[in-house]
Amino acid sequence: MPFRLLVPLGLLCSLLPLHHGAPGPDGTAPDPAHYRERVKAMFYHAYDSYLENAFPYDELRPLTCDGHDTWGSFSLTLIDALDTLLILGNVSEFQRVVEVLQDNVDFDIDVNASVFETNIRVVGGLLSAHLLSKKAGVEVEAGWPCSGPLLRMAEEAARKLLPAFQTPTGMPYGTVNLLHGVNPGETPVTCTAGIGTFIVEFATLSSLTGDPVFEDVARAALMRLWESRSDIGLVGNHIDVLTGKWVAQDAGIGAGVDSYFEYLVKGAILLQDKKLMAMFLEYNKAIRNYTRFDDWYLWVQMYKGTVSMPVFQSLEAYWPGLQSLIGDIDNAMRTFLNYYTVWKQFGGLPEFYNIPQGYTVEKREGYPLRPELIESAMYLYRATGDPTLLELGRDAVESIEKISKVECGFATIKDLRDHKLDNRMESFFLAETVKYLYLLFDPDNFIHNNGSTFDAVITPYGECILGAGGYIFNTEAHPIDPAALHCCRRLKEEQWEVEDLMREFYSLKRNRSRFQKTTMSSGPWEPPAGPGTFSSPENHDETREKKPAKQKIPLLSCPSQPFTSKLALLGQVFLDSS
User: Fold this and answer.
1) pTM beyond 0.85, yes or no
2) How far, in Å, CA of 198 to CA of 215, rounded?
3) DSSP code of 45?
4) Which of 149, 238, 431, 543 is spaced 20 to 30 Å from 386 by Cα?
5) In Å, how far are 36, 90, 339, 364, 387 from 440, measured between CA atoms?
């Protein structure tokens, strides 16, 4: 039963004043340089307003020019905006904010926090900033990226979330108290996305810290969802994490489910995991078979496949971008163009849009400046170079500035029909919306690196290549460098020992003349016995017994070769005569 859009559409650009850089009568594409500067100005208007009126609260209230805590009490907008600062080229402010966060953010607080939101915004934001710190000119400590203050903060925040995963199914509660764990009366009903949106952040955290618990719980939750799908291959919207029974049985690609599918694809790419990709491709078949109509995606009953809600939700607009990641460009563009017609109709995407009627759904007429359609435009423009995608970026800039801009930032649009505003500026506006807009108009940004440049970094475990591109954005648009996951793969016990050796090496390098004299007069230098060395055979045997049965990368084994040879692998310091 195909559904078709029946209402006439009015182009947004005809409703807005023509700016320099916008397409003229000849239909020329928007000027990227012009809109790049416009987007940068949007960011600083919002960011400065937050700093002046709302910090240290989580978010800005732009109509009253003050702040409020929303998802915890983390100065959330500052964390969410940190990597955007670097993408815009502001290294000095990035460095300043890193210091501010270290001094001011505390996770030992009696606050009930969303497990999902804390992960994607706080853990994801801190991990991304940690991995970008060296590029931003931050003086990183010995052992980076396998250690560092932002990494320790991300790990601390993630550990606060772990009690939520202690359920019979391995699927997490939706809320956890950061001080006391899960409250005794906490509801066991969690949305699908709230269960399946951890593998990107948690696998990164496990790879960097050497503690497998994070990736283990994320994988267990993913697998339990996979095992809970219906006979026709669909998952519902909400599930009881204690019993594993579906509470809401609507299946679709939008709110409550969206980032579960997103993380199967991105987790597969990040981890080079064929199983995760195979899971997504199976879901994709069921989604095409039961929910797709005329390149729209509807909501259906998960067991029967019958239509339950013929609506498009604004959160679904990430889907064309996800399709582009698996190479399904034609389908992605057709769906994107459907969604773009809705934007042109209203100057934004309403939260719910009734497809047969071609209009908004009552009480779902708002647009909280969400990024998803812009995100898809960015991905598809990288894949196709189609100027239509730049036109969406132009329309977004013009619309948001005309409707949403106020003296103290940008306000959520409460109703797209009459442009009434709401007193909130979500942190994702600076983390995602502005970032994707800027990247759409900035083809030479370091995020788009194709591998032609990179940084070679010496880690406690050898040389590591970073910054070569291929960044994986988490669902809050925090970029993760996939190469970083291969920099720190050692047992935790060995990591501590090697980091001690690296610190000792840096200390020796500062006293090079004495060090060189010692090595020339007495032969190869041997480490003293004590903590942080490998001189004890008993300690070596104990470490060996704790090794897992199977290792993809050979573990460090210092007794197998002279210490001078091992240091040569970590930078060839003995050959440096300068």
Assistant:
1) no
2) 8
3) H
4) 431
5) 8, 18, 18, 28, 11
Q: How much is the pLDDT for 504?
A: 60
CA gap 73, 112 in Å, rounded = 10
542 an active-site residue?
Answer: no
Omega prior to 460 cis, within 30 of 0:
no
Q: What is the pLDDT of residue 501?
A: 56
Contacting residues for 549 by C-beta, under 8 A, at least 6 apart: none
Q: Is 99 a catalytic residue?
A: no
- Mean pLDDT, rounded, for 219-229: 98
- How do beta strands 250-251 and 246-248 pair? unpaired
Residue 117 is among the residues annotated as catalytic for this protein: yes
Residue (of 274, 317, 122, 256) closest to 202 by Cα position = 122
Catalogue the long-range contacts made by 450-459 (C-beta closer than 8 Å, 24 or more residues apart).
455/134, 455/135, 457/134, 457/144, 457/145, 457/487, 458/570, 458/571, 459/143, 459/144, 459/145, 459/146, 459/487, 459/488
Token readout for 540 is 């070596």
- H or E segment to which residue 401 belongs: helix 387-404
Out of 201, 258, 375, 426, pick the active-site residue: 258
Residues 343 and 349: beta-carbon distance below 8 Å: yes
Q: Across the strands, what pairs with 409?
A: 406
User: Using alpha carbons only, what angle is made at residue 389 by residues 386 and 395, rounded to the nearest 5 degrees?
Assistant: 145
Q: What average pLDDT does this structure show over 202-215?
A: 97
Active-site annotation holds for 372: yes
Which entry of 83, 117, 442, 476 is annotated as an active-site residue?
A: 117
Would you state the pLDDT for residue 454? 94
Q: How many residues in the chain? A: 578
- Active-site residue (options: 262, 316, 351, 395): 351
The enclosing H or E element of 32 equals helix 32-53
HSE, side-chain direction, 13 A CA sphere, residue 296: 27
pLDDT at 17: 34
Among 52, 53, 48, residue whose Cα is nearest residue 66: 53
User: 366-391 pLDDT, tens per residue?
Assistant: 999 999 999 999 999 999 999 999 99
